[in-house]
Amino acid sequence: MDVRRRPIKHQSHHRSVKSHTAGELLKPHNQPKASDALPLPLYLTNGLFFTMFFSVMYFLLHRWREKIRNSVPLHVVTLSELAALVSLVASVIYLLGFFGIDFVQSVIRPSPDSWEIEDDNSDQLMIDDDKPVKPCGQALVPHIMPTTDVAESVVEKKKPPPAIEHTSEEDEEIVKMVVAGSVPSYSLESKLGDSKRAAAVRREALQRITGKSLSGLPLEGFDYDSILGQCCEMPVGYIQIPVGIAGPLLLNGAEFSVPMATTEGCLVASTNRGCKAIYVSGGATCMLLRDGMTRAPVVRFGSAKRAAELKLFLEDPLNFDTLAVMFNKSSRFGRLQSIRCAIAGKESLHKVGTVGGGTQLASQAACLNLLGVKGASKDEPGSNARVLATIVAGSVLAGELSLMSAIAAGQLVKSHMKYNRSTRDMSKLASS
C-alpha cells in the first residue's frame, strides 16, 4: 500500500509510462524549484514582498511619529494601520523564509483530505514510470543511480573493465554518443573515471568513424592513469618499441650499460661495437661545456625593420639589466644569463633531462635507473642531467666510430640489407 496525492479530475487516473532515450538519461533530474510553491515567478514574488515591507514600514513610522507629536496613544490603530501591520508581518515571515522555501510550501500545502490510499497496482505504475529503459548514462553522469539491487551493484563493481572486443551495453551506448558527437571524446576520462575504459571507448568510436581497424595497435598492458593530464591526451593505445642494451660504455672512468629504444636494425649492434672499441682503447673522456635552461620566445613583426630594431635593443648591454629583472620574475629557479637573438634561421638544440615529461613512466624510469640518473639528485641538483648528457655524447661517439669503421670495411650496406630490410609482415604474425 502507498499513500499518494489524489489526481486532478480532468487528468487520467493513471500516469503514462514514458520511455527514456540515452540522451534523456544524461540530463539532470528535475529538481523542485523555489518558485513552484508560489503562484507567481520567484523574482516577481520577491519584488512584491520587498516593496510591501519597505512601504508599510515607512507608512507605520510616519503614522507613529504623528501620534507621538499629537500625544495619541500608539495602541489605538485605524483600519489602514491594522492592514499595514498585517502586511508587515506577512512580508517579514516571507523574507525570513526566503532561503528556506519549505515554510512557504507548508503554508500552501493541501490539507490531508486531498490524499488517499491506492492499491499496489498503482504503486507499480509509479515504479515503472520512474525506471529508465536502459542504464546507458550511469557511467557518464555520477548522480544517476543504478536500477538493480545493492547486491548486484556490488558484484558489477568488482568485475574487470570489459575488453574492447566485448563492450557492454553501457559502453556501446557511450560509443554511439561519441560517434554522434553528443559526448566529446576528450571528456571520456573525466566522465567515466576510468582511463583504461575511456581509451577503449575512444578506440572503438574512432574505428567506427574512420572505418579503419586498429587491431594491430595494442590496448591492454598499459597504465593509462600514469599518462593522464601530463604525457598524452586522448589515447587509443600505445606503440611497442623494443629496448636493446649497448655497452659497457667506459666513460670518465665509469662503466654504463646504455639502453636504446629503436626499431632500426643494426643500430644497437653498431653502437655496441663502438662501445667495445672505446673500452679496449682505455675509455673516453667527456667534458660538459655548458649547463643551463633555454627559453625561445618568438616575436612577429610586420616588417623586417621592426624586427631588426628589437634585435638591436635586446643585444644592447645597457638593456640587459632591465630585461633580466622582467625575466627573473617569471621563474623561481631560472635567472637570465645571456641573450642570443636571430631574425630568421634554424637552430639545432639537443636537450636532455631526468625529471618531468615522460621520465616518471615505468619504462622510462627503469632505463634512467639503469644508468644511475633517475630523478633529481638530492646531493647536487642538476648532476643527473649532466651525467645523462655525457652518456648521450659518449653513445653517439660509439655509434659514429662503428659507422666509420663499417663504411671503411664496406659492411654498412650489406648489414642493413640483411638486418634492416626484413620482408616479414609483423602485423599478421601478431594477429595470429
Automatic annotation (TrEMBL):
The keyword Magnesium does not apply. It is a multi-pass membrane protein. Pfam families: HMG-CoA_red. Residues 1-18 have a biased composition (Basic residues). It is an enzyme of class 1 (oxidoreductase). Its EC number is 1.1.1.34. Residues 1-30 are annotated as: Disordered. GO terms for molecular function: hydroxymethylglutaryl-CoA reductase (NADPH) activity. InterPro entries: HMG_CoA_Rdtase, HMG_CoA_Rdtase_cat_sf, HMG_CoA_Rdtase_CS, HMG_CoA_Rdtase_N, HMG_CoA_Rdtase_sub-bd_dom_sf. This is hydroxymethylglutaryl-CoA reductase (NADPH).
